[in-house]
Design goal:
Blueprint (H helix, E strand, L loop, with lengths): L1 H6 L5 E4 L16 H9 L25 H8 L29 E4 L5 E5 L9 H10 L6 E4 L1
Parallel strand pairs: 1-4
Antiparallel strand pairs: 2-3, 2-4
């Protein structure tokens, strides 16, 4: 995601990060310093510092899912057909659920979800979709990646 942030710096494009602890409890830290330490030193680690805003930890699936993710999922097909409930920490499990951390949504300047990418997708592969969205945008329109 940092590569995309750098590639599109100065253009009408923003990446937003939303930590979530619903997938194998991989984000147990408290909001703020603990989450940033986890990102920097554990996952992805190796001194990673995001070049995009990281918001407070939220639920992206289940009974307590954030309304943003309810909207995103309702407007784009899922990236996975089946889920391993042993690694998931929420209920109920639905077919439209975010499959895992780093699943990505590309949203156009009107808030329309135009692409949803599986968690293991190389962020650079989103460039073609981002380029198309930016070429269609006019004025001060903003493209956003949510992950």
């Amino acid at each position: 995601m940092n590569a995309l942030s750098s590639k599109y710096a100065g253009q009408n494009f923003t990446i937003l990060g939303f930590p979530c602890n619903q997938f194998n409890k991989q984000e147990p830290g408290a909001n703020g310093t603990e989450i940033m330490n986890g990102i920097t030193h554990v996952r992805p680690g190796f001194g990673f510092v995001p070049k995009f805003p990281i918001f407070e930890k939220i639920d992206v699936n289940g009974d307590n899912e954030h309304k943003l993710f309810t909207y995103l999922k309702r407007n784009c097909p899922p990236t996975k057909d089946a889920f391993d409930p042993v690694l998931l920490f929420y209920l109920p499990i639905r077919g439209s659920d975010v499959a895992w951390n780093w699943e990505t949504f590309l949203v156009d300047e009107n808030g329309r979800v135009i692409h949803r990418a599986a968690p293991a997708t190389d962020p650079e592969s989103l460039s073609a979709d981002i380029d198309v969205a930016l070429s269609k945008a006019k004025g001060n329109s903003q493209q956003t990646v949510v992950g």
